[in-house]
């Protein structure tokens, strides 16, 4: 491997070769509500294949056929669908999939240690997904770097120009023995970043990722930051997300300018057997020519889609029903991992 210093973590709005997902089945945590969550996966498959290829990891041939029939019936472009048989614990590919750097010499697949969000869940098979993809000829021939350091893709956000945005709460939970300076150095070194911005505040009740940045704040191609706001003073999130908004207002771009900020509306509390679910509109997915936005059946859905569309000019906005996903505390971005266009070159 040469010239690794020239690699960078591209922004998600840069051209993509496809999106990677894993289909839910009875052996995953979705077992109790499989039919419901499949409706989201089917809608996602139909939406993604309008714009680019979709790579679907399935546990076996029977699940492959089940998924194929469902997405074909929903009108997915089957010429853009590729199945990969591989064992997995669950379906959160944002956190167990490859974090792909790009550079003049091609790509570098960063394979960080996946610990089930700090040991909360079994993760042995998920931690082996990237190696499994390589063994099965997917991503084969690409430089691959195993990094024995816990990090999930949902925990970092890149502007494509060397800036990484993350949250202190998440990384401090993963590495309680390490200093801020040490973690900043590891992130900057392994992601070839020039700077790391840390948020002290921001969380969603029901989120078991320890405040992943992709549920809170995202860089946007207009040079701004889209973030989840809370305008309900009676809501327990009001103070914390207000403090996060103040932090974001203090951040500066590489040019020393304040970031234009795009606050997202707040969905009404969604409860499941008394448990608050983490309904974030910031957990959207960018694909070639479009941005796929979570919809929760809430009156704020349309306004969230409008604001995200404004922050991603020139892209079609497609709403995907995501209420079933938040039963397991994640949303659209969490179940997907984009593959940069350089992978296909």
Spell out the CATH superfamily: L-arginine/glycine Amidinotransferase, Chain A
- Continuous helix count: 10
Strand order of the largest sheet: 3-2-1-18
Enter the CATH topology name. L-arginine/glycine Amidinotransferase, Chain A
CATH architecture assignment name: 5-stranded Propeller
Q: What summary fits the major beta sheet? A: 4 strands, mixed
Global mean pLDDT: 94
Sheet-strand content, in percent, reads 15-25%
Number of domains: 1
Please compute the radius of gyration using only Cα atoms.
19 Å
**Inertia-based shape:** globular
Uncertain residue segments: none
The CATH first-level class comes to Alpha Beta
Counting helices, strands and paired strands, the structural category is alpha/beta
Helix content: 25-40%
SSE order in H/E notation?
Answer: EHEHEHEEHHHEEEHHEEEHEEEEEHEE
Q: Give the beta-strand count.
A: 18
End-to-end Cα distance, whole Å, is 17 Å
Pfam families: PAD_porph
InterPro entries: Peptidyl-Arg-deiminase_porph
Protein name: Agmatine deiminase
Keywords: Hydrolase
């Amino acid at each position: 491997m040469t010239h690794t210093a020239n690699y960078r973590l591209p922004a998600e709005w840069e051209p993509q070769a496809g999106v990677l997902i894993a289909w839910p089945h009875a052996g995953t945590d979705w077992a109790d509500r499989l039919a419901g969550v499949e409706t989201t996966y089917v809608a996602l498959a139909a939406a993604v294949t309008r714009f680019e290829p979709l790579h679907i990891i399935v546990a076996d041939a029977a699940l492959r056929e089940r998924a194929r029939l469902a997405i074909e019936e929903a009108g997915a472009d089957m010429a853009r669908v590729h199945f990969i048989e591989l064992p997995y614990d669950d379906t959160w590919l944002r956190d167990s999939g490859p974090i792909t750097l790009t550079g003049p010499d091609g790509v570098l697949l960063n394979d960080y240690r996946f610990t089930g969000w700090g040991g909360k869940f079994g993760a042995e098979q998920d931690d082996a997904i990237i190696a499994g993809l390589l063994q099965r000829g997917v991503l084969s021939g690409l430089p691959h770097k195993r990094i024995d350091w816990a990090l999930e893709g949902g925990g970092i956000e890149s502007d494509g120009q060397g800036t990484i945005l993350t949250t202190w709460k998440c990384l401090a939970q993963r590495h309680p023995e390490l200093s801020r300076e040490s973690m900043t150095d590891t992130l900057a070194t392994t992601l070839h970043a020039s700077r790391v911005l840390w948020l002290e505040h921001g969380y969603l009740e029901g989120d078991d990722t320890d405040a992943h940045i992709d549920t809170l704040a995202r860089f946007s191609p207009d040079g701004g930051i889209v973030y989840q706001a809370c305008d309900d003073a009676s809501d327990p999130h009001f103070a914390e997300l207000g403090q996060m908004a103040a932090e974001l207002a203090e951040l500066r771009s590489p040019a020393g300018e304040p970031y234009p900020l795009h606050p997202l509306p707040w969905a009404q509390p969604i409860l499941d057997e008394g448990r608050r679910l983490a309904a974030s509109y910031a957990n959207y997915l960018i694909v070639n020519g479009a941005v796929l936005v979570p919809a929760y059946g809430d009156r704020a859905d349309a306004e969230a889609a409008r604001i995200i569309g404004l922050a991603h000019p020139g892209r079609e906005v497609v709403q995907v029903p995501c209420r079933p996903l938040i039963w397991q505390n994640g949303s659209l971005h969490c179940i997907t991992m984009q593959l940069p266009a350089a992978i296909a070159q």
